[in-house]
Amino acid sequence: MTTIPQGSALDELRAAYHEQLTQLATERDAARRQARRAQAQADVARADLASLQSRVHELLNAAARHLPDLPAVEGPVAQRALPAASGSADPDQPGERPARAA
């Protein structure tokens, strides 16, 4: 029966453990980078939404000035009016929501 010196088996275990720790650290770092990218995209989406809401508010008020039957829209009302207006659009139509490049 051949015996393996205890030192080499321990060295192999240490190397495997170190390799696994390195792989886990690499995966953790990749996940953190992905989370930062997702957060940045969410920030851009929120800014785009705020800009669109502001523009819709401006357009509704401009239309109200020219169409006497259309009431003027004030701040919070414009934000409530936006989802109702976008809900009437066909969600199956491509191009209704432009995709932002990553």
Protein architecture, described:
- Helix 1 (6-66) crosses helix 2 (75-87).
- The protein is mainly α and 102 residues long.
- The chain has helices at 6-66, 75-87.
Element layout with pairings:
Blueprint: H1 6-66, H2 75-87
Helix pairs in contact: 1-2
Main sheet makeup: none
Mean pLDDT: 78
Query: Structural class, please?
Result: mainly alpha
Q: What oligomeric assembly is this protein in?
A: single chain
Give the SSE order as H and E letters.
Answer: HH
The helix tally amounts to: 2
- Rounded radius of gyration (Å): 29 Å
**Which term fits the overall shape?**
rod-shaped
Instruction: Give the termini distance in whole angstroms.
Output: 61 Å
Based on DSSP secondary structure assignment, what is the total number of beta strands?
0
The parts where pLDDT drops under 50 for at least 5 residues are 77-99
Please state roughly what percent of the residues sit in beta strands, choosing from under 5%, 5-15%, 15-25%, 25-35%, 35-45% or over 45%: under 5%
Helicity level, as a percent range? over 70%
Please supply descriptive tags for the structure shown above.
single chain; 102 residues; mainly alpha; 2 helices; rod-shaped
Provide a concise account of the structure shown:
This protein has helices at residues 6-66, 75-87. It is mainly alpha-helical and 102 residues long.
